[in-house]
Amino acid sequence: MIGAGGGARNAARARQRRRQQLPTWSPETTGLDAVPAARRGDFQRYLAASGEKAFVLSEDGARHSFYYARATAADAVEQAMAKCQEGGLRCRPFAINFAAVPAGR
Predict the structure, then answer these.
(1) What are the two backbone dihedrals, phi and then psi, of residue 91, each rounded to the nearest 5 degrees?
(2) Burial letters for 10-24: b for 16+ Cβ neighbours within 10 Å, e otherwise?
(3) Which residue stretches of the chain are H helix?
(4) Are 92 and 56 spatial neighbours (Cβ–Cβ below 8 Å)?
């Protein structure tokens, strides 16, 4: 969970990244509101993580997995999907790097 003052620090970092023309994110572009409430803290940690990354949710929203700092986004998706699908659950990529993945893709 992001501690006190984390929102302000994240906003400042996002402004700095935009000035440097680096990728950034916002709740609107990442689909934060679509993440089940019980998973939002981990989704915020995922967004703050570095490198190539993927966040995966089970279809019922009861389980999730994310990997970051991988060599490629495809590696991150593969590893997050494998972890989420343990026990036979059906999972789908929810976000890759800073982009939300539409359902059904």
Answers:
(1) -130, 165
(2) beeeeeeeeeeeeeb
(3) 6-19, 27-30, 40-48, 73-84
(4) yes
Torsion of CA 24, 45, 33, 78, to 10 degrees: 90
Q: Where are the domains of the chain?
A: 6-100
Residue identified by tokens 């700092």 is 69
The rounded distance, in Å, linking the Cα atoms of 60 and 38 is 12
Residue owning tokens 């994310």: 66
Q: How far, in Å, CA of 20 to CA of 33, rounded?
A: 27
Threshold 0.85, pTM exceeds: no
| Residue written as token pair 């998973």 | 39
Greatest Cα-to-Cα distance within the chain, rounded to the nearest angstrom: 44
* Six-digit token string for 18: 């935009």
Determine the pLDDT at residue 83. 96
Residue 66 clears pLDDT 80, i.e. is over it? yes
